[in-house]
Amino acid sequence: MNLTEFQTLSKRTMPFNGEPSNPIEFENMLGNYAMGLVGEFHELQWEINKVTNETLTESIPFIDKEVGDVLHYCVGLLELLGEKFTYSRIGHAVVIDELEEHLAKILELPKKHIYHRHELNKEEFITSVYEVVAFLYDDFGMKFERILNTNIDKLKTRYPDKFTSEDSIKRVDTDE
Prior knowledge:
- The protein has helices spanning 3-10, 23-50, 56-80, 96-115, 122-140, 144-158, 165-170.
- It is mostly helical and 176 residues long.
- The longest helix has 28 residues, at 23-50.
- The protein is globular.
């Protein structure tokens, strides 16, 4: 599976099937996916930082899970913004300082759009999402197919038909 296929398959778990019918649904999805991406990225960083306290082999499933979750939110944002994923948009690998700037934009641009009523700079937003993907691709690219398949399997287990709040609360795929 590649990221283009992953984008199509993960769309089934997006609220409103990824096709908001009004500006409020769009804004809700934009905020949800932006916050989700940044939150999951910080969970990924937390898992990577734990590696010093345990063996890499023990932590790999958790790291891969978090990478898959970050990618789910990345492609969800791209889908919402009408951007079909393309590998040609993945730029150079970014350094951590650049990545933090892009993560900040992923939160700042929707905030200004939703709450301050600024025009959403879609191209700047899309570029920032692709920079997160580039960072992950540089570090985890060799395992992307396995990570993507694992994430889709998790989503199919959690949401057998489509996204529902009830299934989100149940989280049948976890011990939470």
